[in-house]
Amino acid sequence: MIYDVIIIGGGVTGCCIARNLSKYDLKIALLEKEADIASGTTKANSGVVHAGFASPREYVKRDMCIKSNKLYTQAFEELNFSFQRIGSFVVALEDNQIKKLEEQRRQGTQDGVPGLEVILDKKKIKYMEPNLTDDVVGVLHAPTAGIVSPYGMTYALAENAAMNGVKFFRNQKVRRIKHQNYTFIIKTKDKEFKATNVINAAGVYGAKISKMVGLDYFNIMPRKGEYILFDRNAMHLNKILFPTPTKVSKGILVCPTVSGNTFVGPNAQNITDKKDISTTEAGLKEILEGGRHLVPNLPLRASIRNFAGLRAVPDTYDFIIDNTDVFGFINVVGILSPGLTSCYAIAERVTEFLELLGANMTVKEDYNPIRPKLDKFKDFSKIELDKKIKEDPAWGRIICRCETIPEKEILNAIHSPVGATTTDGIKFRCRPGMGRCQGGFCRPRLIEILSRELNIPYEDVVKTGEETNFLVAKTKEIVLRSLEGGSEE
Ligand SMILES: Cc1cc2nc3c(=O)[nH]c(=O)nc-3n(C[C@H](O)[C@H](O)[C@H](O)COP(=O)(O)OP(=O)(O)OC[C@H]3O[C@@H](n4cnc5c(N)ncnc54)[C@H](O)[C@@H]3O)c2cc1C
Question: Range of 97's domain?
Answer without folding.
Answer: 88-143+222-308
